[in-house]
Write a structure and sequence with these properties.
heterodimer, A: alpha/beta, 4-stranded mixed beta sheet, 7 strands, 46% helix, B: mainly alpha, 70% helix
Chain lengths: 168, 163
């Protein structure tokens, strides 16, 4: 009896080597539930690589919402998934924008703008909404761009990240 | 005789200064932003044409093959880079705006990199002014485009694109 139980446990360990738990953000998890033979343990498992990529991507995009208002999200999310390496530069850029614009900053949003000449391409756009005159806003934009943004982000990441300014 | 693109800037300036008809204010603002963009993007493109970089096609990226890599992860990285390069390549092939911005961004000259970033900002402002129906294009945005356009002129002078 005991040895049969151990055999089942060893079998379970062997089968789950390349698997890891799967948690869906939304939806019906019961589709992924398997009742493991003889043990009556419910296991939520699926192949490692697949799960890891999915969870990583969605959590990073979700995390970006702590830094940016995400606009026009369908194309933006698609592009963020394509260029996942820009997550950290985007987070760092938001921190620097906060440093440069300080209390005059009202909102910072992230969007993806396509080129009217070729709708399949375009650029990420960081829209900075401030409470300043055009001249004051431009002076800070220029300093931020020259001192930090161009050398640390713009030329370092593959897709084009552009800045834009708006006023309330 | 070649057209002096700085006349576009002058026209943009005049439009912006002459906002006497309230009903036309937004139309003036949208038009002046358009002038401020083309007044600098065309000289930038002409500069690239003149120095030969415009004709040199942006190189088509080479598709990596799995058997060129021992490690599967290395192949994944190379393939992802390839896909991203391919996007730049297609954009440059299909849009003069994209091509100008990409060539200047890939340059090793820091002023040209700054110019690329500035042009991308003005490109977005121009796109909104020309295409966006539900976003108000006001004096603030037109003034910003003017300031940016003047700054880009300085960068163009610095690299010798205009005198």
């Amino acid at each position: 009896m005991v040895s049969a139980g151990l055999a089942v446990l060893r079998d379970f360990q062997e089968k789950s080597k390349n698997m890891e738990p799967f948690y869906e953000d939304k939806g019906d998890c019961s589709k992924n539930v398997e009742a493991y033979e003889n043990t009556k343990i419910l296991v939520l498992y699926q192949p490692k690589k697949e799960i890891k990529e999915e969870v990583k991507c969605s959590s990073e995009i979700n995390d970006l919402k702590n830094y940016y208002e995400l606009k026009d999200s369908s194309i933006l999310v698609k592009k963020l998934e394509e260029f996942e390496d820009i997550y950290q530069p985007l987070v760092e850029t938001k921190k620097q924008i906060q440093n440069y614009f300080g209390k005059n900053l009202i909102e910072v949003s992230l969007n993806y703008e396509t080129d009217p000449e070729y709708q399949k391409s375009g650029m990420f756009v960081i829209d900075i909404t401030i409470n300043l005159s055009a001249q004051e806003a431009f002076d800070i934009y220029n300093r931020f761009s020259n001192e930090w943004f161009v050398k640390n982000v713009f030329t370092k990441v593959r897709p084009i990240i552009s800045l834009n300014l708006s006023s309330l | 005789m070649t057209f002096n693109w700085q006349k576009f800037i002058k026209v943009g300036d005049e439009i912006l200064e002459d906002l006497n008809t309230p009903a036309l204010n937004e139309a003036y603002c949208r038009t002046s932003i358009n002038r401020f963009y083309y007044g600098v993007s065309n000289p930038a493109r002409n500069f690239l044409e003149k120095d030969g970089r415009w004709k040199q096609e942006i190189e088509a990226p080479k598709k990596p093959k799995p058997n060129e890599f021992q490690d599967h992860n290395e192949y994944d990285v190379a393939f992802k880079n390839y896909e991203e390069d391919l996007e730049d390549f297609k954009w440059a092939q299909n849009s003069q705006h994209g091509k100008t911005i990409i060539i200047l961004k890939k340059s090793e000259n820091e002023t040209e990199n700054t110019l690329s970033s500035q042009l991308s900002t003005l490109f977005i402002q121009r796109k909104k002014a020309d295409y966006y129906l539900h976003e108000e294009i006001n004096k603030f945005k037109a003034d910003l485009a003017k300031l940016l356009s003047n700054e880009i002129l300085n960068s163009l002078k610095e690299i010798g694109a205009i005198t």
